[in-house]
Design brief:
- With 129 residues, this protein is mostly beta strands.
- Helix content is 0%, strand content 37%.
- The chain is built from no helices and nine strands.
- The strands form two sheets. Strands 1-8-9-4-3 form a five-stranded mixed beta sheet, with no helix packed on it. The chain has a four-stranded antiparallel beta sheet with strand order 2-7-6-5, with no helix packed on it.
- Strand 6 and strand 7 form a beta hairpin.
C-alpha cells in the first residue's frame, strides 16, 4: 500500500482590503498619474504624498466608489509602480502607473462603507526617488 504525504494547510490571512466605518483626515497634494479604462468607468481618485515636504514616506490614494457596497466586490492589485482596481460587476476599472516605486508587500487598503471610499496606503521605496 502507498504512503500518505505530509499535508500543508494554509492559514487564512487577513483580507487585503479592510472595511472601516469612519473616514480619516489627510493632507492633500495631488500627484499626476495616467489612468486607462478597459472595463467599466474610471472612478474619481486622488494621490497624496506624506509628508508634503521633502522625500515622501508614503503615497496615499483615495478612490471614490459610490456604486460599491462592500469590499468583497473589489479586486485590487498593487505592483511596484502600478495600481489596478476593478469591480466584480465591471462598474469601475482603474489602471494607474505611479510616479515613484512603492513597497507593494507593505501596502494596505481600507474600504469605508459609509463614504464608499477605498484608501490605499503605500510606503515609498527610497532608493528609487
Amino acid at each position: 500500500m502507498g504512503q500518505l504525504t505530509e499535508q500543508y494547510i494554509r492559514v487564512r490571512a487577513k483580507p487585503f482590503i479592510v472595511e472601516v466605518d469612519q473616514s480619516t483626515n489627510t493632507i492633500e497634494q495631488k500627484i499626476e498619474t495616467t489612468a486607462t479604462v478597459e472595463k467599466g468607468s474610471i472612478p474619481e481618485f486622488k494621490i497624496i504624498r506624506e509628508p508634503l515636504e521633502g522625500d515622501p514616506e508614503f503615497l496615499i490614494m483615495d478612490i471614490q466608489l459610490p456604486k460599491v457596497k462592500s469590499a468583497k466586490t473589489l479586486t485590487l492589485d498593487i505592483g511596484t509602480d502600478r495600481v489596478v482596481l476593478s469591480t466584480r460587476s465591471n462598474v469601475y476599472h482603474l489602471d494607474i502607473w505611479l510616479p515613484m516605486d512603492i513597497d507593494s508587500d507593505e501596502s494596505g487598503a481600507q474600504f469605508d462603507k459609509a463614504t464608499h471610499t477605498l484608501t490605499i496606503t503605500m510606503p515609498v521605496l527610497h532608493d528609487t526617488i
